[in-house]
């Protein structure tokens, strides 16, 4: 099975082609560029370097969020468009689960990334041969994250060391997404209806918040 994999949910960009769960080609970047300007270039480059054609793709896996509103939307839109055009199945995976799988860490792992306003996106997982959700992914204060950690033993924090909020974190492992890694845990992949799939933002946008406040005033 040939799988095209896409994660544009945050500043890092990760795209890959796997064959039967094994990486054939991948591109991972952490440069500050607009993903909409580079994602198709990278996908075409993967196809050229691997020798596959678009019609060889059997399914698409995309990170559904949480993350940057624009970044998540770009990845999900492209994945849906390609799945529809190619007539292939569409699967999604949590952006936080991508980081957990990419790190190679085992046991209780807690990936997080900056959610701004003093909050983070985070989730707690137990990773072994299988991948189990321990604390649901959400938009949380660091205080809430620490309280969740105290409920469990030996929690490994995962974060992108280039993000400013990590300066105040206790010991953590630098981790960025490599979407190619998630197929080793099929239980974290969710089959999607191409027409009904929506990004998983986990919080409302500022525009939505302002609209709600206007309606309530």
UniProtKB/TrEMBL annotation:
<feature type="domain" description="Gcp-like">
    <location>
        <begin position="31"/>
        <end position="128"/>
    </location>
</feature>
<keyword id="KW-0012">Acyltransferase</keyword>
<dbReference type="GO" id="GO:0061711">
    <property type="term" value="F:tRNA N(6)-L-threonylcarbamoyladenine synthase activity"/>
</dbReference>
<dbReference type="InterPro" id="IPR043129">
    <property type="entry name" value="ATPase_NBD"/>
</dbReference>
<dbReference type="InterPro" id="IPR000905">
    <property type="entry name" value="Gcp-like_dom"/>
</dbReference>
<keyword id="KW-0808">Transferase</keyword>
<dbReference type="InterPro" id="IPR022496">
    <property type="entry name" value="T6A_TsaB"/>
</dbReference>
<dbReference type="Pfam" id="PF00814">
    <property type="entry name" value="TsaD"/>
</dbReference>
<protein>
    <submittedName>
        <fullName>tRNA (Adenosine(37)-N6)-threonylcarbamoyltransferase complex dimerization subunit type 1 TsaB</fullName>
        <ecNumber>2.3.1.234</ecNumber>
    </submittedName>
</protein>
């Amino acid at each position: 099975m040939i799988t095209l994999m896409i994660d544009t949910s945050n500043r890092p960009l990760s795209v890959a082609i796997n064959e039967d769960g094994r990486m054939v080609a991948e591109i991972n970047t952490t440069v500050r560029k607009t993903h909409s300007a580079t994602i198709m270039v990278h996908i075409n480059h993967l196809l050229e370097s691997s020798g596959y054609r678009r019609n060889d793709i059997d399914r698409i896996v995309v990170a559904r969020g949480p993350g940057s509103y624009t970044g998540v939307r770009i990845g999900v839109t492209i994945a849906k468009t390609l799945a529809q055009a190619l007539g292939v199945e569409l699967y999604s995976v949590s952006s936080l689960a991508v980081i957990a799988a990419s790190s190679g860490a085992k046991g209780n792992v807690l990936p997080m990334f900056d959610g701004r306003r003093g909050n983070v996106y985070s989730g707690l997982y137990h990773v072994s041969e299988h991948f189990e959700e321990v604390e649901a992914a959400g938009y949380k204060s660091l205080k809430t994250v620490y309280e969740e950690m105290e409920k469990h033993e030996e929690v490994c924090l995962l974060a992108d060391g280039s993000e400013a909020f990590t300066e105040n974190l206790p010991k953590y492992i630098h981790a960025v997404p490599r979407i190619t890694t998630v197929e080793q845990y099929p239980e974290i992949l969710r089959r999607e209806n191409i027409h009904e799939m929506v990004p998983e933002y986990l919080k409302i946008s500022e525009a939505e918040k302002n609209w709600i406040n206007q309606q309530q005033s």
